[in-house]
Amino acid sequence: MDQEKTGERSSISTAAEYVQEKDMRRRSFTTSIESAPSPMTRSLRSVSSHVAEQIPEPHMGLLSSCNMIVGLIIGSGIFASPGPVTLKVGAAGTSLVVWSIAGVLSYLGAMCYAELGTMITKSGGEYQYLRQAYGLCMGLTFTWSNLLLTNGIGTASISTVFAQYILQMAYFDPNNPAHQPDMPDYALKLVAIACIWTVVAFNCFARKAGTWVQNIFTAAKLIALAMIIIIGFIWLGKGGVKNLENAFEGSSTNALDYGTSLYLALFSYNGWNNLNYGISEVKNPKKVLPIAITISCFLVTGVYVLANIAYFATLPVATVAKSTTVAMQLGLVAMGNAGAYFFALMVVLSTFGAVNGNVWAASRLVATCASEDSVFIPPFFGKLHSGRGTPVTALILVGIIATIWCIPGDFTYLAKMYSFTGWLFYGITIAGLVVMRFKKKTKDMERPFKIWLPLAIFFVIIDCYLVIAPLVDAGSEGVYQYIICVIVGLLGIPLWYIRVKKPEIGRKLFGWLPFYEDAKILRFQQVKLNNRHENGSSPSDDSHHLDEKVLQEEEEQQMKQ
Predict the structure, then answer these.
(1) Helix (H, G, I), strand (E, B) or coil at 247
(2) Are the CB atoms for 330 and 315 separated by under 8 Å?
């Protein structure tokens, strides 16, 4: 028996020795984002204790939670999506219905997330839910897709809106304001890329620079939206109801058009799930989260519908449908050339702030993934600059990914890809909610808030339509953009296999590289196994490799607590 334990100890220590050997060969020019004072040769036990110290204290009440959700949802979409949505459905009334349905779907999805968030109160959002429902592989696949697809495409799409309004101002002819200028495609992409790298530079310059930008420019979108709605009411009072009298005349009869139009509207609602990422910072989340979601989603839906009514009260339907800068067109009609420039400037400031928020958040996600698990992102990207205290390498990587996504297409192209990726994982996540209602290990977990199960199933069915309809509508020429998303997302699975499931394969394939090292997530598994041996028990899983069973068991214990 003692010989068996000795053999187990020697095999289990292999991964730790391998990591330690690799760590000694690394050269570090910057400080780790984990901000631990000790070097990389610290003990595995100190790694585990440091992570525990990083758990934030709850500090957000109902008002703060509502402000966060509303602030994260309202972005550039309401200034860019009304045109493509109207172009697809063909009528003002139908467009308003699509925007309302998008709000209801977002609310329904958010309430499903409320059950998940109050059942699994650890921060991390979809990663935690997918991991609990399907296993570590699915959770890490989401992380991979989020890093390479969702964040990059989202940043690229917002910077494209920024570029559209900048160029619209540059090419605007005050002597012929009704003329729609023909803006070069290369100029649009160059301005969008310049926006991304300006934001990257701001965030590299100083730790608080991104926060300053966000605080200054967030007000712009609120001012612009408030003025748009006020102008809409004034125009309705003046009799601008022509577009609303026969509101459904000319509506599309193609069912697939409504799936695509919902995608474009839902792009503007994205962010309803973001509070779940920081749920550990919410006071009494079991009570606050469902209420905050309800208030925020209905408030945003009301604002979006009113903004669209303002567009239709002020502009002809054809103008709205063809315009990529609808807010500028509204300003031109309502306030003349000065109004056009004013609203364009407000949208430019708003989108610049939104790009900043995306880049800031994505860089922290990259840095955290690199420093805490390093499954997909090398630890090099989890470093803080020694002088400025900013994740410079992570910011540069985020900038490169967003730049690549700026190249293929325009706003509509990017918005559809973004929504496809997002709603694919929303559907998988909420299907996981249904799975956990019946899964042996999770069916008895405490659920302070519980959505009616048929509503969750209904959401999954609608989500399937939202994912499939645009694929069919795109045809053979346009479907490739969605295929690219699927292929990139699936690449996370073989990476998980050789980095986590069978790390010895990764060592054989890439161990000869001087910078290659085991994923840090294996260290936490090593801590768990070492603790078991110290307590005199042997692991039930195969000791010749470390897999996700250890993490899964640790997760289940935390859930019970």
Answers:
(1) coil
(2) yes
Looking at residue 485, its amino acid is: C
Dig out the tokens for 516 from the structure. 């290659």
Return the structure tokens found at 13: 């220590």
3-class SS at 529?
A: helix
**DSSP-derived pairing of the beta strands 383-384 and 31-32:** antiparallel
Write down how long the chain is.
561
pLDDT at 545 over 50: no
Assigned token pair, 561:
């607590």
Q: Residue 188 pLDDT > 80, yes or no?
A: yes
Q: How many whole angstroms separate alpha carbon 504 and alpha carbon 439?
A: 31
For residues 546 and 199, give the distance between their C-alpha atoms in angstroms, rounded to a whole number: 40
Euclidean distance between CA atoms 212 and 371, whole angstroms: 26
End-to-end CA distance of the chain: 33
Q: Are 183 and 167 in contact (CB under 8 A)?
A: yes
Tokens coding 132: 């609990």
Residue whose C-alpha is closest to residue 433's, from 406, 410, 452 = 452
Helices (H), 81-150: 82-89, 92-119, 126-134, 136-145
Among all chains, which residue has been given the structure tokens 């109207």?
Answer: 86
pLDDT class for 215, splitting at 50, 70, 90?
low
**In Å, how far are 274, 276, 297, 357 from 269, measured between CA atoms?**
11, 15, 9, 16
Burial of 361-392, coded b for 16+ CB within 10 Å and e otherwise, reads bbbbbbbbbbbbbbbbbebbbbbbbeeeebbb
In the structure encoding, which two tokens stand for residue 372, read together? 């805490």
Exposed, middle or buried, 1 (CB in 10 Å: 0-12/13-18/19+)?
exposed
Contact 22, 511 (CB under 8 A): no
Look at the alpha carbons of 295, 297, 301, 303 in this order and tell me if their dihedral is positive or negative.
Answer: positive
d(CA 398, CA 353): 16
Give the CA radius of gyration of the chain.
Answer: 25
CA dist 285 and 60 (Å) reads 9
For 52-69, what is each residue's pLDDT tens digit? 444 456 767 888 888 878
Residue 41 CA from chain centroid, whole number: 34
Q: 469 to each of 36, 194, 258, 420, 488, how far by Cα in Å? A: 49, 34, 9, 10, 21
In the three-class reduction of DSSP (H, G, I as helix; E, B as strand; rest coil), residue 239 is classed as coil
